[in-house]
Amino acid sequence: MEMEVLLQFYLSCFMVSGQAIPCQEGGRSFRLTECRKSPAWGETVVGKKHLTGIERLILCAALCFLLFQGCAERERYTYERIKRTYKAQEPGPAAKESRAIPAPQLPQEPLSLHQAVILALQGNPEVEMALARIRQAQAMIDEATASFWPVLSVYGEYLQGNAPSSYLFKTIDQRKLPPGVDFNDPGWFENYEVGLQARINLFNGGRDLLRRKMAETGFQIHELDRRSVENALVESVIHAYFQALAARDYLEIATRSVTTVEEQKRVVDVRYRAGGALRSDLLSLEVRLAQAKEEAVRAKNNHDLTLAALAVLLSLDPDSPLSLQEKESMQRGFPKDYASGLTQALANRPELKKVRQQVVQSYMALDMAKAEYLPKVDAQAKVYLDDPSADFQTSRDNWIAGVIVNWDVFTGLSTPARVSKARSVLDEMIALDRKTTQSVQLDLKSAYLRLAEAEARIQVTQASVAQAEESLSLVKKEYEGGSATITRYLETELALHRARILAKAAYYDRERALASIGRGIGYWAIFAEAMRERNGK
């Protein structure tokens, strides 16, 4: 019964024919079909009607529709549905640009360092996130530009009641004010109104212009952020690539060590069976062989991990079967000394350019906060039609136009607070500029020091490997002749193993240091920009 009463209320409120109004009689609600005079709440009713079967069917259909809408809304906002359907259903500029970037494809031949860098720039999630932020900044520019255009809106209105002021105003706008109306008790009325209104800001202290300039500066900031991401990404890819090559070389060295010890163990085992070697020598070789195999297992695991890390940087599945070229090296004409490199870093590093634009943007924000002390001037215009039965006629149209000036002379000290906040943000950005400059200097200084260290280590380790190889050759002959012990032989073999690993580590540390210098001077950001222009993206 409560549902019937509720439906009767809504049906009576929205009926136009017969001027049906919700009424009550004997504590029950029903729909009016006619009344003796202008209906009002609680008047005696001539006719009434309960819900029919069709009305009950409409009510059930409405309830089912609402329930279905609720379920559909819950299904609409799920991660699985959004990930599956967003780009297909919303082919906007963002989705189209995302599709324009080709998916990374592994080449058939072994992956070169240059190919790895290109793959990373094409599909890495950090680059795509930076692109999304750039599109957001472009949307902010468009939004700020919209404030210079007028705002047009169309509206419709339905009103009823017995308020004298509303009765008079609406009836006059209808051009149907009856003569001799009682201003204190004009009676019940209803009115339909449709219209077009427009407004435009004429002056607001330059805030709209500053907002657009801030949006344009924000766009430049996000562009520089993208370059910063690409600058760091290329360095990370180069580091991971050389780390994978180093792990592969370590695995080869460990495997070679296992083969060497196994061969020596086979020889000693033959000699032991013939009575020409001690059992302790054989046991020592077995222990060394176990150590060599353990190192080979660790080297194999490290190699697999470095390949998986490189695949992730390339936006590939970690299980992708990567095959790298036999040998790669950095052949870049970077500045030879720190002083020359610092000059380029201060001019090219995206992080420095970004923070300097943030200083400019913060100063604009300070001026915009100060502009709130100034008045705001708006122009408004409105054209509309009124009628008690929605029978609109252009001969009875109405229009108004004017200029509005708003000047907040006291805002509870909120405006000075916003100015103080903007000034503090500017102070923060200036301090961040100084900190970023120092970080860039330290970053570049560290890269040059690591390069110098790696080059010195290369010279030392190359000589060490040559000495260790010669020493092992001599000790092996001495051991076979009986003048050297097995302990001496194992120590020499282990020394050669370590010397080779240190030599490889020094070589790849030099290559990684060169990559860090490239990031330190901002070279990789320029390289990524050139590749993007070459590919037309």
Strand content: 5-15%
> What general outline do the C-alpha atoms trace?
elongated
Radius of gyration: 41 Å
The overall pLDDT average reads 83
Strand order within the widest beta sheet: 4-5-6-7
Largest sheet: 4 strands, antiparallel
Q: List how many beta strands DSSP finds.
A: 7
The number of distinct helices, counting runs of at least 4 residues, comes to 14
The secondary-structure element order is: HEEEHHHHHEHEHHHHEEHHH
Q: Catalogue the unreliable spans.
A: 1-49, 88-92, 94-101
The percent of residues in helical segments reads: 55-70%
Description:
- Residues 1-49, 88-92 and 94-101 have low confidence and may be disordered.
- Helix 6 packs antiparallel against helix 8.
- The strands form two sheets. Strands 4-5-6-7 form a four-stranded antiparallel β-sheet.
- Among the domains are: 2-124, no CATH class; 148-206 and 375-411, Outer membrane efflux proteins (OEP).
- It has 537 residues and is α+β, with helices and mostly antiparallel strands.
- It has helices at 2-14, 53-76, 79-89, 93-100, 113-123, 125-145, 164-174, 207-273, 279-313, 338-348, 350-370, 414-481, 486-520, 523-534; strands at residues 23-25, 28-32, 48-49, 151-161, 189-203, 376-387, 398-406.
